Amino acid sequence: MRVAMIGAGYVGLVSGACFADFGHDVCCVDKDPTKIEALNRGEIPIYEPGLAGLVANNVREGRLSFAGDLSQAVKNAEAVFIAVGTPSRRGDGHADLTYVYQAAREIAAAMDGYTVVVTKSTVPVGTGDEVERIIREIRPDAEFSVVSNPEFLREGAAISDFKRPDRIVIGAEDERSKGVMTEIYRPLYLNQSPLLAMSRRTAELTKYAANAFLATKITFINEIADLCEQVGANVQDVARGIGLDNRIGSKFLHAGPGYGGSCFPKDTLALIKTAQDHDAPIRIVETVAAVNSQRKRAMGRKVVAACGGTVRGKTIAVLGLTFKPNTDDMRDAPSIDIITTLQDSGAKVRAYDPEGMEAATAVLTNVDYAKDAYDCARGADALVIVTEWDMFRALDLTRLKAALAEPVVVDLRNVYRPDEMQRRGFTYMSVGRA
């Protein structure tokens, strides 16, 4: 099938490349000329394992192309996916739908023949109705359908998630559009991935509900971790003990410094605002968002406590800046609040991240960047593990201790075992473990 993907950011580029790999003819469109020029040169603007090879292969095979103008791509397409950004709106926290609605207007002007317009972006309930109204107003004669098809991609594992999904959610109001969407995802039938058909509004809410629930699981285990520290229990054992219950499940029960990234912070906030607007406040999610925000700075104070109650004039080494491993995404990363807290307390910060340091320079100031983990630790009064990149999981502890001015390690991801760290002579503090 012929597919146009409006937006060549994280969701659009991954989705477009995967659709092309299924055999569809895909054109990814983006208004940023620098991004399009880079993609046409074979340069990938984001870090996602396996994406560069996937894009290159499908460009070479002629199934994937990039353009700055959507008119021809939309005119030729049977399905047009809107995969533009929906950031939190400044001032009130609602999702900013400016780019979605602008895309709808441009699609309306360009489409030719029956077209399925698909919102891939995460959008509040009722957005599909407004997209349909906009297109109908501009093109009252047009044949089209508007469908919701939310994405459930984890950064760092997006290609695997797209090709082997738990489920595919299709919010369609008519059988014709449902048939088009079924054909687009037909290659996944071999994987027996369930395709869940529902109303458009239900599909829109499903995405927000999923992210809010996962954010709640993370926040729940983080608060249990705080209790474990006070009563002498082990949060990792608690997580295993409850995670083996099939009603709960083991995923997203890893205690740490709080959630971040491009989805959970903005999506929980947008859901809160939507619920308030419809007089159905979601108190649990409101609390989750507030607790998570407070937790990040609390992790900074945890580092201060590990250093004897003051970090003024001290150098703190920070390993890991991105909100999770295998991405260069710094959006709402816990490291931002942790480092800011340390700097506010008078510390000098040196940091290392294998992929995130360039992006970090846009959101952090007065941070020295190191060439590797040991260079980061050199002469530091404490080392903090913020993001659990694989390269940080098996550090040479003898070399690390020799590099540090003081053998203090604050492990916010519970990468190491307390008994081993103590045996090696470290002053070691982790999360939710005595």
Word description of this protein:
There is one protein chain. With about 425 residues, the chain is of the alpha/beta class. It has two domains: about 1-200, NAD(P)-binding Rossmann-like Domain (Rossmann fold), CATH 3.40.50; about 225-430, Rossmann fold. The protein is about 45% helix and about 15% strand. It contains 17 helices and 14 strands. The protein has helices spanning about 10-20, 35-40, 50-60, 70-75, 100-110, 125-140, 160-165, 175-185, 200-230, 235-245, 265-275, 285-305, 335-345, 355-360, 375, 395-405, 420-425; strands at about 1-5, 25-30, 65, 80, 115-120, 145-150, 170, 195-200, 315-320, 350, 365-370, 380-385, 410, 425-430. The protein has a six-stranded parallel beta sheet with strand order 3-2-1-4-5-6, sandwiched between helices. It is elongated. The N and C termini lie far apart (about 55 Å). The model has no long low-confidence stretch (mean pLDDT about 95).
